[in-house]
Amino acid sequence: MAKEHAEHIRVRRYSGSARINHWIVAICFVALMLSGLSLFHPSLYPLSDLFGGGQNARWIHPWIGMVLVVAFLGLFVRFFWQNLPEFTDFVWLARIRHVLRANDEDYLPEVGKYNAGQKFVFWAQAILVGVLFVTGVGLWESGLGYFENLLGFKATIEQKRWAALIHAGAAVLAITIWIIHVYAAIWVRGTIPAMTRGFVSGGWGWRHHRKWLRKEVGKGHIQKVA
Question: What does the alpha-carbon distance between residue 127 and residue 88 come to, in Å, rounded to a whole number?
Fold first, then answer.
């Protein structure tokens, strides 16, 4: 399929349910980031005013975390297979300098729905969400009794201290990866509309995810644009 023809089609990249799922995760993540930072250091405590004060921020933070875990599990199930590593991912990483240059993507291998960078974000956040959930449960005073009875053990003070340290470290890493994710979405024009309207242009698919575009065209999952 020639590039000039690709410009005159659009392709569905995400279904409506996938987009809703994504934005639930995104909203929960931002709320967790703000409420968590307000409890992280006294200088950031004013952020708790967004939640009605420190007590409210402390109360609502774990509940938002539970919603995020369930919503992220939905994303994980949806996109697990498409984020499995492939040989082309290693070639893509080896040529990362071309990714960082404008209009230099012809030197990159054809990739499927997600490139190696996107797969890294997916798997890193999946691991970190798991770590944050486990350590967060250990720090959740109002819900800890239930989980202790369910799991059959009681966390010690030393374990709670380690949980707090690991939770904070994992949160910093998750926020850093989130910033990279948002920056990349803004930098690669046409990416954000894919998660708001669900479609991308054929030209966008040809330039960034050519292997995926070929499959979609082969299946007939395209719409002509006048």
Answer: 23
CATH class of 3-224: mainly alpha
Q: Report the alpha-carbon distance of residue 154 to residue 98 in Å, rounded.
A: 52
What's the pTM value of the predicted model, to 2 decimals?
0.86
CA atoms within 13 A on the CB side of 22: 18
Q: What is the DSSP letter of 94?
A: H
Q: Tens digits of per-residue pLDDT, 44-61? A: 999 999 999 999 999 999
Q: Which of 61, 167, 181, 209 is catalytic?
A: 181
By the 10 Å C-beta count (0-12 exposed, 13-18 middle, 19+ buried), 115 is classed as buried
Of the CA atoms within 13 Å of residue 85, those in its CB half-sphere come to: 7
Q: Does 5 participate in catalysis according to the annotation?
A: no
CB 1 within 8 A of CB 44: no
Evaluate if residue 181 carries a pLDDT over 90.
Answer: yes
